[in-house]
Design goal:
Blueprint (H helix, E strand, L loop, with lengths): L1 E4 L5 H13 L3 E6 L4 E6 L7 H5 L4 E5 L19 E3 L3 E3 L5 E5 L6 H14 L3 E3 L17 H14 L3 E4 L14 E4 L7 H7 L6 E4 L6 H13 L5 E5 L17 H8 L4 E3 L1 H5 L2 H14 L3 E5 L17 H18 L1
Parallel strand pairs: 7-8, 7-14, 8-9, 9-10, 10-11, 11-12, 12-13
Antiparallel strand pairs: 1-3, 1-4, 2-3, 5-6
Helix pairs in contact: 3-4, 3-10, 5-6, 9-10
Length: about 325
C-alpha cells in the first residue's frame, strides 16, 4: 500500500502518521520527491481502512499494490534511484557507466594491463572474477583470495572501484575492499545469500538468472532490499532459449519494462548475452538506445589465451571503439 501526502505536509504530521503505522506492525518506506511525499507500507495492510486514511487532511490518495515486490516497485519510489559508488560515480537517474575488465583475474600483469586500458577508454568501474562458477568442475575456478588481492592492487593503481562476484556468504570478509558485490545469474535465487547481502552496506549488482522472469528478478531484489540495502543494480544478461547461434538470447525489452516496474538502475551485459565478441558492439549500442543505465563488458588483453570466456571478450582496442560508439548513441537519444 502507498499513501501519497499532500504538498505542505509538515514533518510533525509525517512523524505522527508513520508512528501510527508502526503501531499497526507495518514497515514504512518514505520517498520524498520535489512536489510530494509518498509513504510505502510493507506488511499486513488488510487492517488499514483506506477510506479513513484518505479522509485525513494530509493524505492526497491511497493505493493498494498488488505486485509482491514492494520496495523495488516504482509506485513506492517514483523517482529513479541513483546508486553512488565512492561519491563521484553514479549509476541511474541519467548517469551511465561502463564497467569493464576480464572474466577472470589470471595474473598481476593481465589485470593491471586491462585495468589501465579500460580506464583510459572511459570505464569507471573495474570488473574481474576471483571466484568463478563454472559448468564443469575441471574448468578454471578463479584465483579466489589471490584474485581479490590483485584486484585491490589494480584499484590502487587506477583508482577504479572493484566489481566482483560472490558465491558464498562465508567469503564476505574477503570482500572488504570490493566496492560493488555481484550476484551471478546462477545465484539469483540463492535467497539465503540475498538475505545476508541485505545487511551489507555496499551496492549489489544483481544479474538475471538464465531462465528467470522479470518478476522473479525483482523479487530477488526485494530480498536484498527487505534487509535494508536499497543500493541494488539490476543486470540483464540474456536468457536461455532454443536459439543455438548465440550463447543466450539478449532480452532488450527487459530494459524499458524494468524501468516501468522499478526505480532501480538497469544495466546490460552484452558479453554473456551473446557469447561472441563481434556481437558485443551492436548489442551494447542497442542497449544504450533502449535506455540502459550502463554496460558491463568483458575485456581481455589476449582473448585467444584467456582461461575463461575468451570468445566473448574484447581486446582493449575493441572496447575503446565500443565506448566511442555507445557515447554517440547516448548523445543521440538524450
Amino acid at each position: 500500500m502507498i499513501a501519497v501526502l499532500k504538498a505542505g505536509t509538515t514533518q510533525q504530521q509525517i512523524d505522527s502518521l508513520t508512528g501510527w503505522f508502526e503501531q499497526q506492525g507495518l514497515e514504512i518506506h518514505i520517498s520524498r520527491g520535489k512536489y510530494q511525499t509518498i509513504l510505502g507500507l510493507v506488511g499486513d495492510t488488510t487492517k488499514i481502512d483506506t477510506e479513513l486514511l484518505e479522509a485525513l487532511d494530509m493524505v492526497e490518495s491511497v493505493k493498494r499494490i498488488s505486485e509482491p515486490f514492494k520496495s523495488a516497485n516504482r509506485k513506492f519510489h517514483p523517482e529513479d534511484t541513483v546508486v553512488t559508488i565512492r561519491e563521484d560515480i553514479r549509476i541511474g537517474g541519467g548517469n551511465f557507466q561502463f564497467i569493464a575488465g576480464p572474466c577472470s583475474v589470471e595474473s598481476r600483469e593481465q589485470i593491471l594491463q586491462v585495468a589501465q586500458a579500460v580506464s583510459a577508454s572511459g570505464a569507471k568501474l573495474l570488473r574481474g572474477g576471483a571466484f568463478k562458477p563454472r559448468t564443469s568442475p575441471y574448468d578454471f575456478q578463479g584465483l579466489k583470495g589471490e584474485g581479490l588481492a590483485l584486484l585491490s592492487e589494480a584499484k590502487k593503481q587506477t583508482g577504479m572501484p572493484i566489481v566482483t562476484e560472490i558465491m558464498n556468504i562465508n567469503h564476505l570478509e574477503l570482500f572488504e575492499d570490493v566496492d560493488v558485490i555481484q550476484v551471478g545469474a546462477r545465484n539469483m535465487q540463492n535467497f539465503e545469500l540475498l538475505r545476508e547481502l541485505g545487511r551489507v552496506h555496499k551496492p549489489i549488482l544483481l544479474k538475471r538468472g538464465l531462465a528467470n522472469t522479470l518478476k522473479e528478478l525483482l523479487m530477488s531484489a526485494e530480498y536484498i532490499m527487505a534487509g535494508g540495502n536499497n543500493d541494488v543494480i539490476l543486470c540483464e544478461r540474456g536468457v536461455r532459449t532454443f536459439e543455438t547461434y548465440t550463447r543466450n538470447t539478449l532480452d532488450l525489452s527487459a530494459v524499458p519494462m524494468l524501468h516501468e516496474l522499478t526505480h532501480l538502475p538497469v544495466i546490460v551485459d552484452p558479453s554473456h548475452a551473446t557469447g561472441i565478441s563481434r556481437l558485443v558492439k551492436p548489442m551494447a549500442m542497442a542497449a544504450a538506445a533502449a535506455g540502459a543505465d550502463g554496460l558491463i563488458i568483458e575485456v581481455h588483453n589476449d582473448p585467444p589465451r584467456a582461461l575463461c570466456d575468451g570468445a566473448q571478450s574484447l581486446t582493449p582496442e575493441q572496447f575503446d571503439d565500443v565506448v566511442k560508439s555507445v557515447n554517440r548513441i547516448l548523445e543521440a537519444v538524450r
